[in-house]
Amino acid sequence: MKREKQLLKGNYAIAQAAIEAGCQSYFGYPITPQSEIGEYLSTKMPELGRAYVAAESEVAAINMVLGAGSTGVKAMTSSSSCAVALMQEGLSFIAGDEIPCVLVSVMRGGPGLGYIYPSQGDYYQATKGGGNGDYKIVTYAPASVQECVDLTYKCFYVSQKYRTPVCLLADGMIGQTMEPAVIGEYPYEEIDQSDWALDGAKDREPRFIASIEREQESLRKRVVKIFEKYNKILENENIFEKYETEGAKLVITAFGSIARIAKAAVKLARKNGLKVGLFRPVMLNPFPEKLVAEIAQKVDGILDIELNCGQMLQDIKASIANCASTIPVKFYGRPAGVMMTVEEIYKQIENVYKEIVEKKYGTACI
Amino acid sequence: MEQLVYKKPDSIKDDFKISFCPGCDHGTAVKLVAEVLDELGVREKTIGIASVGCSVFSYDFFNLDIVEAPHGRSMAVATGVKRSKPDKIVFTYQGDGDLASIGLAETIHAMTRGEKVTAICINNTTYGMTGGQAGPTTLIGQVTTTTTSGRKAELSGYPLKISEILKEVDGTAYVARVTLDSPAAIMNAKKCIKKAFEAQIKGLGTGFIEILSTCPTNWKMTPQEAHARVRGEMSEVFKPGVYKDKVSEAL
Amino acid sequence: MGRIVLNRDRCKACYLCVDACPKKVLGADNQVNALGYYPVKVNNVEECIGCAMCARVCPDIAIEKVYR
């Protein structure tokens, strides 16, 4: 594998990064805009003596991942929106079973079949989930092809270290974008899985991996233990980007592809003298509430920008409410279909800035 | 000198708990699977898949590594295990509702791929654990809690003949339907279960066993009456026998 | 001459073994066991031929060992 910069498509970058990370088993079913991942791995995995199975459905794919993950190998599936919806039951079981695995979710526009246009409409699906019970899917959202590589590595590492399902939440734009990126070596230590994984009960007691708990107290303890893990993940594995937030009066919050365009708009705003910054959570779940609260205490307002009708917005608002801040939170969103331009976002920034910041201080004071 | 002629198989835990109702054939079925694993000498490299239904409590008795599958997904989970660890012996233990209703797609496709695993299906013509509702194998005329005046074909279709369907699937190497209603039937069932594991071990394809099983509680019968029903109306619709045997052909 | 090792507290009183025994060695106990059932008991051990039919049909593995 050449380690220099090359022109890469997001989906291929994810697929090759999975191989570099040591993904031993991949199971998937085609759906645009992520089908290249399965196509790529269908050739590469058998060449390396690893498992590739074209599953009969996403329901089967996620359960194959469950089985593979239960043996301790690095297992992955990839899918999109209405098909990730089919995996929710399996994800709930995997979370309850504490099985490590990686789900690559390349969002398309919904609801229902929607279409393949870029969208961030599955923030709720990834971070709130459709599966039953108390659990979280740890979620990272890349904003570039380079991050597709780096975060795929991170997903495998976190899943193996904490025995939890981890989601790489990309969108059609990131998946289909070609840009220069480097596929470096997998940078994390290998985590030994031999003390819990199934490999046949030889010279030890048999192991049972399941989500079922018949005793009330042990069911409660299991859920508490899982949530303690999420706290550790937030503490140790959080990734975010702060850009020009020092001294900013207005902070833009955005994740994934749209955060890149928002960053360009922030640069333009700074050039024009507006004290604007950007906060981009890369880890979306568990949500970095404290970081948002810290920002909220230093600024006059927040403008949340998403390619949906306001999903991360609810987490932003909750974070601010939790720290008893009363700053206004504005939202500029657009459901699936048309990407926002830098100019469109800049115009929104300018309007919100006038309304919140300049009204407060008067233009002369800024 | 006294000779030991029968003992609890090693593939059953020493502190096992059989959680099935009195007289239920499930207990005999798991015992046979355990005996076969012992005889094949593969206990220490076996991974079992527990499904949803009465069979979920496999970990109470199997002295084996076990992973639980969501309802119907056992054959997908088995695929994931086997493809990741091809040197292990992998089997599912499922009810007919799990394998042939909610999990029919996973079952047929895993067998179409010829996954080198063994599937054991308990066909008792009802959803046992949830209290005896009509399932995919409920016989015409059978009274259940959801067919209170008997299953009618025009309303709820016909019983699904699992073995007849799966013998037509190219990836299966061994398909048999057995009963447990007499000592002779139990011995025969064990022979067939062994073949279904040999199909996997020899790499020939999927081994499948359908066990016509009793559910005395939900059938509201004594265990003896329940066995008579297996011999009678159940065996008339679901004909016991070996439907496919590539294992013997390969010898 | 045979002998069985019966764990009476595992028996759920289905009596499938009673029917399976060719020598009619087994019958119902009149004392309940830990599970609340009237388990099987060995009535006439001298008749037992150690054929293990009872153990094979027992769904609860209550007959743990058979000797001959």
Topology (elements, then pairings):
The complex is a heterotrimer of chains A (366), B (251) and C (68).
Chain A: E1 6-9, H1 10-20, E2 25-28, H2 35-47, E3 51-54, H3 58-70, E4 75-79, H4 81-84, H5 88-97, E5 101-107, H6 123-127, E6 138-140, H7 145-162, E7 165-171, H8 172-176, E8 178-181, E9 208-209, H9 216-237, E10 240-243, E11 250-253, H10 256-271, E12 276-281, E13 283-285, H11 289-296, E14 301-306, H12 312-322, E15 329-333, H13 342-361
Chain B: E1 4-7, H1 25-40, E2 46-50, E3 65-68, H2 74-84, E4 89-95, H3 96-102, H4 104-112, E5 118-123, H5 153-156, H6 162-167, E6 172-179, H7 183-201, E7 206-212, H8 216-219, H9 223-237, E8 241-245, H10 246-250
Parallel strand pairs in B: 2-3, 2-4, 4-5, 5-7, 6-7
Antiparallel strand pairs in B: 6-8
Chain C: E1 3-6, H1 16-20, E2 26-28, E3 40-42, H2 53-57, E4 63-67
Q: Order the strands across the largest sheet of chain B as they lie in space.
A: 3-2-4-5-7-6-8
Q: Largest interface, per-chain counts?
A: A-B, 39 and 36 residues
Order of helices and strands of chain B: EHEEHEHHEHHEHEHHEH
Query: Biggest β-sheet of chain B, characterized?
Result: 7 strands, mixed
The averaged pLDDT of chain B comes out at 97
Q: How much of the residues of chain B is beta strand, in percent?
A: 15-25%
Count of β-strands of chain B: 8
Regions with little confidence, pLDDT below 50 for 5+ residues of chain B: none
**Biggest pleated-sheet summary of chain C:** 2 strands, antiparallel
Structural class of chain B: alpha/beta
Full CATH superfamily name of chain B: Thiamin diphosphate (ThDP)-binding fold, Pyr/PP domains
Q: Roughly what fraction of the amino acids of chain C lie in strands?
A: 15-25%
Alpha carbon gyration radius of chain C: 11 Å
